[in-house]
Amino acid sequence: MKKVLKATLVLCLVGAAASPSFAQQPSTAAWDSVGRILGTAPASAAGYVRYNLPRRDLTVRIGDVTVSPALALGAWAGFSGEPNDATMMGDLVLTAAELGPVLAELAHQRIGVSAIHNHVVGEEPEIIYVHILGQGNALDLATRLDRAVTRTATPRPVTAAPPVPLTIDTAAVFAALGRHGTARSNVAQVGFVLVSGTVTMGGRTMTPALAYGSPSGPTARSPTCCADSGQQSMPGTERTHACISESRARGPRPRRDRNDGMQQESQSRPR
């Protein structure tokens, strides 16, 4: 199981970095068919095809901060490999009331659950994140996932978000994080891969950005302060040190963090 540390940070004078390069997968017609099943268009990502399912139906706040879908409400599913033999991973964003029915449907549809945890702390209403895992024919996987997503109020078909002016200082954010990314309105998005070497699972080599990427989404609150929701994926040997560092920086945060159902054959194997 990949080891994941998720946290919400308040960062002042933040800066960001260059997201991984994007590559379009072949078999465009098959991936378009997956998008029609899921009710959202395919998007090119770093080595996989991504389907975004933003929870625009939810109004979530942490104190005086309204959580935008781009910050921490962006459910998604990603597919790597070929359409007839794909690996599917993703993250479902659920309310507490949706959790039970969705988990039951995922089990019924034989879709694995690799983690149930929180990306943010102190939000109202409570939001729960469920990581999913499946392998097989992409159209079959999408059909089964669609039945689980139907148990939520996720708006579908997904429509393009209306244009909005850019209000975050991307130059400062990207410079501080040492990597460029994308931005929309007051949210920047930056991707990292912190695990070196090759990670395999079930004999398959995992796509880094899909299986163990570390995204970050700084959101401008003022010209000198950002709120950030992100994650860090790391080998298990590094997790204890990272958790201790986070606890010392912020104090304890007793929230859900259950990882199961996904066993890696190798957490970090030299290339």
Give me a quick take on this structure.
This protein is α+β, with helices and mostly antiparallel strands. The protein has 7 helices and 19 strands.
Q: What is the C-alpha radius of gyration, as a whole number of Å?
A: 18 Å
| Beta-strand content estimate | 35-45%
Side by side, the strands of the main sheet go: 3-4-7-8-10-9-18
Number of individual domains:
1
Q: Would you tell me the structural class of the helices and strands?
A: alpha+beta
Which ranges are low-confidence, i.e. pLDDT below 50, for 5 or more consecutive residues?
A: 1-26, 243-247, 258-271
What distance lies between the first and last C-alpha atoms, to the nearest angstrom? Answer: 20 Å
- Largest sheet geometry: 7 strands, antiparallel
Report the count of strand segments.
Answer: 19
* Secondary structure: helix percent: 25-40%
- Helix/strand order: EEHEEEEHEEHEEHHEEEEEHEEHEE
What's the overall geometry? Answer: globular
**Count of individual helical segments:** 7
Roughly what is the average pLDDT, rounded to an integer? 80
